[in-house]
Write a structure and sequence with these properties.
2 domains; 449 residues; 13 strands; D-Maltodextrin-Binding Protein, domain 2; six-stranded mixed sheet; alpha/beta; globular; 41% helix
């Protein structure tokens, strides 16, 4: 009996020693934060379930934070979580706040993991987000600017379908002339014709998204820029940049081909949203982000896609939300596995087949088998590869991820002045001179992170 007691005591002692090991290797819960549409929310939650199935012992708790297009709601929520010491393990992050948070040491340094697993060239060269030569995150997707159009509207106006090769897009002047042919008032008159009534337009030539990312390709195409590469010079007041901004404003106020709702007047009042106008035959072209393909492809009209118009050279921008692992995570190894999982388009295929995202994985742009996985469907129009995917070879990263104070430069100085340009109250030259003066007075040009 004494021997039995000693054996039992020995097993109990061993169990006590082993207990902490079992606890340390026990279940892990990761919290993943993100924004997005209901469709994106659904696909991500499905990806989390698949990750859990492939990684027994790890569960993922979604933290879905719907926000506005500028991301102010999302950014405010993450800031509040940080102040409360309740940051998630990983997830999406606003690109225009990435540099300041990375510099503050709030993100995990991914460089050693990327080097160890030889992942540098597995993705597009723009994907890894660096501060002082260390990777602190990645772009969640690849996104760019696209020229969408309604085939029926163009054909009715006698306008040829635009080229799909991004290197052979129409000149800006050609584009404007075609927009004039499409634009029609209620009496069938076009801009420039006697009797044309710009207040009674029934079909417009174009609608153009006018926030900062959407301005960059045209500005770069004309050899202009927003801010110098070192983040220390304001360049929207330079002639190359001013010319583009003025020509965009001319589409509204001079050429009368732009379906623009002017918040300071009744001009354009009551116009439907551009996607609705495009589908209804009230609009010829729509220049916007590639992600709008998600909704446009669901509308019942002959959707086409073409190369962006060119000023002096083809240009494209790369923009996306960022994905990061917060340094405060208690599970860095597991968080890295989930981060990689979410970067793998095979694991979140619906985000790509639906038209919402472009993949970050390099082979999905060139390998026929990979291309077929996500573009061989009715969602992606003919010419999608030539006009969109191939243009990513020249895509420049949006400076918002590295330029200090970018949200303030745009929000406090540039955007208010551009509103006056779009409404015709100022010329682009006058407005950008004023914007530069404000940027300098506020001492916002502090270089890069």
């Amino acid at each position: 009996m004494k021997r039995s007691f000693m054996v039992g005591l020995t097993f109990l002692f061993i169990a006590v020693l082993v207990m902490p090991v079992i606890s340390a290797a026990g279940p892990v819960k990761l919290t993943y934060c993100y924004w997005g549409s209901p469709a994106e929310d659904r696909v991500l939650k499905e990806a989390f379930k698949n990750f859990e199935a492939a990684h027994p012992g790890i569960t993922v708790e979604p933290m879905y934070i719907p926000g506005d297009i500028t991301g102010t709601e999302y950014a405010a929520k993450i800031k509040a979580l940080s102040q409360a010491g309740e940051l998630p393990d990983l997830g999406y992050f606003r690109p225009d706040h990435f540099g300041s948070w990375a510099t503050a040491g709030l993100f995990m340094n991914l460089s050693p993991l990327i080097q160890k697993e030889k992942l540098e060239k597995a993705v597009l060269p723009q994907v890894w987000l660096k501060v002082k030569n260390k990777v602190y995150g990645s772009y969640s997707a690849a996104e760019c600017q696209v020229l969408f159009y309604n085939k029926d509207v163009l054909q009715k106006a006698g306008v040829p379908l635009p080229p799909t090769d991004y290197r052979k897009g129409w000149s800006w002047n050609q584009f404007v002339e075609y927009c004039k042919k499409i634009t029609t008032d209620r009496n069938g008159k076009h801009p420039g014709e006697s009797g044309f009534d710009p207040g009674k337009i029934t079909c417009y030539g174009v609608s153009y998204q006018l926030w900062h990312a959407m301005l960059l390709p045209a500005i770069w195409s004309n050899n202009g820029d927003f801010i110098s590469p070192d983040g220390k010079q304001f360049k929207l007041d330079r002639p190359e940049s001013v010319e583009v901004l003025q020509k965009l404003a001319d589409l509204i106020n001079k050429d009368h081909v732009f379906a623009y709702t002017n918040p300071s007047s009744t001009s354009g009042a009551g116009l439907p949203a551009p996607p609705v106008m495009l589908a209804n035959g009230q609009l010829g072209f729509y220049v916007t982000g590639q992600w709008e393909l998600l909704d446009l492809a669901k509308m019942n009209f002959p959707l086409g896609i073409g190369a962006l118009p060119i000023f002096k050279k083809p240009a494209q921008m790369y923009v996306s939300g960022a994905s990061v692992i917060f340094k405060s995570t208690k599970h860095p190894k597991e968080a890295w596995e989930l981060h990689k999982w979410m970067m793998n388009p095979d694991k979140t295929l619906d985000l790509y087949t639906s038209g919402l995202w472009l993949p970050t994985k390099a082979s999905w742009y060139t390998n026929p088998a990979d291309l077929k996985k996500w573009t061989d469907n009715p969602v992606h129009p003919a010419g999608f590869k030539e006009a969109v995917l191939d243009s990513m070879q020249i895509a420049r990263v949006h400076m918002e991820v590295k330029v200090k104070n970018f949200p303030r430069i745009w929000g406090e100085a540039v955007a208010p002045e551009l509103d006056l340009v779009w409404s015709g109250q100022k010329t682009a030259a006058e407005a950008m001179k004023a914007a530069k003066k404000r940027v300098l007075s506020l001492k916002l040009l502090q270089g890069n992170y």
